Amino acid sequence: MSTRTPAGNSEILQIELPPRPRKRPRQERSVMLVDALKKTGWEILEKEGRDALSLERLSMRSGVAVSSIYEYFPTIESLVVAIFDDFRAQARSRLVEELRVLPSNTTLFEGITLLLRIGIPMLHKWVQLDRDVFVKSSHYDELVRLDLVKPTQYWTSIATDALMERFPDEVVVRDRAKARFVAFHTILALPRAMALMHPEYLAEADTQVLLARMLHALLTTRD
Q1: Are the CB atoms for 42 and 49 separated by under 8 Å?
Q2: Is there a contact between 46 and 82 (Cβ–Cβ < 8 Å)?
Q3: What is the CATH number of the domain that holds 60?
Q4: Range list of β-strands (E), 118-163
Q5: Does 104 share its domain with 198?
Q6: Same domain, 113 and 222
Q7: Residue 11: its pLDDT value, please?
């Protein structure tokens, strides 16, 4: 894809779209086949690394014919993107559920810490398993975040909303909409920038603490 710069500038920015599945499975048998491919692909990525995830090995390990793999995933990259889409969705569901069952005396800062404890390792894992696909997806996601392109799927700010709903008495900002906006973009953009430029930061213990303090200040400062 490409997007033109403002004010009639003829310069064109070329952004490669993240590869996507060719189609979505509809029948139960097709859903099971695609799930088997994603499960096998994930196992190979985790245990043997990205270089080991070839079409031939995927077919052999999953028992799915190459022609059937192509029917849903035109490239191995499209499979990796589908795997991590599921990974992110599971992380979001886990966050919402764990926030819901926290004891009543849990603080906002502890809730923020929980969010980061789930989200940061997930991001770090993706960078480690397939940096090239992560970079391509991040470039596209950044254009979506800045509202320069419309996504085929829109990932809502579940994490930010879940925090503000779970700890309404501690979120004492004067302008909740502004605080939500700033927190939302902090959660999205800062960890992604680390993953792209300094992925080692994601594994450092103080990173989550620094981000937690920043987010807590954003959500508890009146002036």
Answers
A1: no
A2: no
A3: 1.10.10.60
A4: none
A5: yes
A6: yes
A7: 64
pLDDT tens, residue by residue, 189-206: 899 999 999 999 999 989
The torsion angle over the Cα atoms of residues 38, 115, 18 and 75, rounded to 10 degrees, is -10
Residue type, 119: G
Report DSSP letters for 12-49, one per residue: EEE-PPPP--SS---SHHHHHHHHHHHHHHHHHHHHH-
Tell me whether residue 57 is exposed, middle or buried, using C-beta atoms within 10 angstroms of its C-beta: 0 to 12, 13 to 18, 19 or more. Answer: middle
Count other C-beta atoms under 10 Å from residue 141's C-beta. 18
Instruction: Please report the pLDDT score of residue 4 as a whole number.
Output: 46
- pLDDT value of residue 153: 46
Helix, coil or strand: residue 61: helix
Report whether pLDDT(60) > 60: yes
Collapsing DSSP to helix, strand or coil, 168 comes out as coil
- Residue 35, pLDDT > 90, answer yes
**Quick check: pTM over 0.85?**
no
62 and 148 inside one domain:
no
The token duo for 22 is 């060719």
The answer to whether the Cα torsion of 145, 150, 155, 157 is positive or negative is positive
Q: Are residues 113 and 194 in the same domain?
A: yes
192 and 160 fall within a common domain? yes
Structural domain including 53 reads 18-74
pLDDT at 17 over 90: no
Mean pLDDT, to the nearest integer, of 164-172?
92
Interatomic CA distance for residues 31 and 138, integer angstroms: 27
Note whether 194 and 219 are same-domain residues: yes
Number of domains in the chain: 2
